[in-house]
Amino acid sequence: MGRIVDIGSRIELVSMDPHFHEITIGLYRQEHDGAPVYRVHTYSGRAGADQRIAFVSNAMVALGGMAQTPDGLLRFLCGEAHELACRRVFLEACKLASGGELKARPLTILDRKSGLKIKASGTGSGEYRVGAEGEGKDGARRIPAIAGGLVKLGEMQSRSPDSVAFSCGHDHDAAVGLLLVRAPNVRAAVREQETAGARGVLAAPSQQR
């Protein structure tokens, strides 16, 4: 007889992993000792599926600055959920092929719309100031737009037109570097997230090969 395991509430889904036989991978949220933790899970019984899940979990550690518990659960070191940011980290981790290099993304990007180099500089206590360098145009307009993108993608607080912060009061450089890539086109990022969640559901073990 199969054993039913409570893996938590599903908060994000990749219905077809392009890097491993199009298996379905879900991100689940649990509570351990009153603190939020996350589990990457698949019902697929394919040989190598466990290794794929382990890679995605490790990628989330690198890309999101998360920590991994001995039993493979993920959490932010500050102890807060940061659920929306975690969902984005998960989606980005699933885009990587297993075996690829894992490293945090820099806090700078090239904004294609303006031609400016955009940088998020940590000022302490979880606050980041968005600035621009270069000879591009529309810096006065693009900086607040990108800061607003960080607010939407990471559930951050807006302190000023160019300053955002995490409510936990802790720095999350790796997560901000990842979110900064998507912040210039936040509408597309939100659509992608909504589409990923609506594409399907995790199939029972008997339905996957």
Portion of residues in helices?
A: 25-40%
Radius of gyration: 18 Å
Adjacency order of strands in the biggest sheet? 6-7-8-10-9
* Overall residue-averaged pLDDT value: 90
Overall geometric form: globular
Detail the poorly predicted runs: 201-209
Return the string of H and E elements. EEEHEEHEEEHEEHH
How many beta-strand runs? 10
Describe what you observe in this structure.
This protein has 209 residues and is of the alpha+beta class. It has two domains: 9-103, no CATH class; 108-192, no CATH class. It has helices spanning 49-64, 83-94, 139-154, 173-182, 186-198; strands at 9-14, 25-32, 35-41, 67-68, 74-75, 108-111, 116-124, 127-133, 157-160, 163-165. Strands 6-7-8-10-9 form a five-stranded antiparallel β-sheet. A three-stranded antiparallel β-sheet has the order 1-2-3. The model is unreliable at 201-209 (pLDDT under 50).
What is this structure's SSE topology?
Elements: E1 9-14, E2 25-32, E3 35-41, H1 49-64, E4 67-68, E5 74-75, H2 83-94, E6 108-111, E7 116-124, E8 127-133, H3 139-154, E9 157-160, E10 163-165, H4 173-182, H5 186-198
Antiparallel strand pairs: 1-2, 2-3, 4-5, 6-7, 7-8, 8-10, 9-10
Helix pairs in contact: 1-2, 3-4, 3-5
